[in-house]
Amino acid sequence: MEDIEVVQYSEVEEAFKLIKSKKLEKNDDYFISFEMDLKSFDETSLRRLLFDYKILIFKDGKEENADFIIYKVPELEEDESEITIWAFNTKNIKFLSDTINKIKKEYSFYSWSRIKLDILNCQSDKINLDNIKGIGFEKDLVINSNKEENNRILYRLYYEREER
């Protein structure tokens, strides 16, 4: 877990290059939340999101094969106890688990007590749900749409905040 780094505002350019290098639009290994607009995703928007503390980006320290996870931080008018996964490599569940543990330990001063993974039904074949459940996520809610493939399935991981 010591290889996991939080991307700082001064590292936005490097982080943007890493994210773009994964070609997320075409990469089936990555889950991308329907809330994340890849069409308007550029370095400026990433910079703004980090500066305004609207996202957290974790990356592993291996530059040649670096990986990343993006979490959306709740805004004041939202449920402040829930952080949402926006993007992660579905083939790297250990990294996801390690970032969750890092959030529990190093971000306990926030009121977060659960992590949400909001999947469209048409995205569910991308994710090995057994792996997700294996690290503690539980199916919490299904929000039906006019088309079955657009039904939203909410998985949540509840945890007790750890004291620092």
In short:
The protein has helices at residues 12-21, 43-51, 93-106, 129-134, and strands at 4-6, 30-32, 55-60, 68-72, 82-89, 114-120, 138-143, 152-158. The chain is α+β, with helices and mostly antiparallel strands. The chain has a domain at 4-116: Gcn5-related N-acetyltransferase (GNAT) (Aminopeptidase), CATH 3.40.630.30.
Describe the fold and architecture.
With 164 residues, this protein is an alpha+beta fold. It has a domain of 113 residues: Aminopeptidase. Helix content is 24%, strand content 27%. Strands 1, 2, 3, 4, 5, 6, 7 and 8 form an 8-stranded mixed β-sheet that branches. A hairpin with an 8-residue loop joins β7 and β8. The radius of gyration is 15 Å and the shape is globular. The two termini are 16 Å apart.
| Order of secondary-structure elements | EHEHEEEHEHEE
Distance between the termini: 16 Å
CATH class of the domain at 4-116: Alpha Beta
**In terms of structural class, how would the helical and strand content be classed?**
alpha+beta
Helix fraction, binned, reads 10-25%
Looking at the overall shape, the CATH architecture of the domain at 4-116 is: 3-Layer(aba) Sandwich
Radius of gyration: 15 Å
Instruction: Tell me the β content.
Output: 25-35%
Mean pLDDT: 88
Low-confidence blocks of residues: none
Number of helices: 4
The biggest beta sheet reads:
8 strands, mixed
Total number of β-strand segments?
8
Q: CATH fold name of the domain at 4-116, please?
A: Aminopeptidase
CATH evolutionary superfamily of the domain at 4-116: Gcn5-related N-acetyltransferase (GNAT)
**Silhouette:** globular
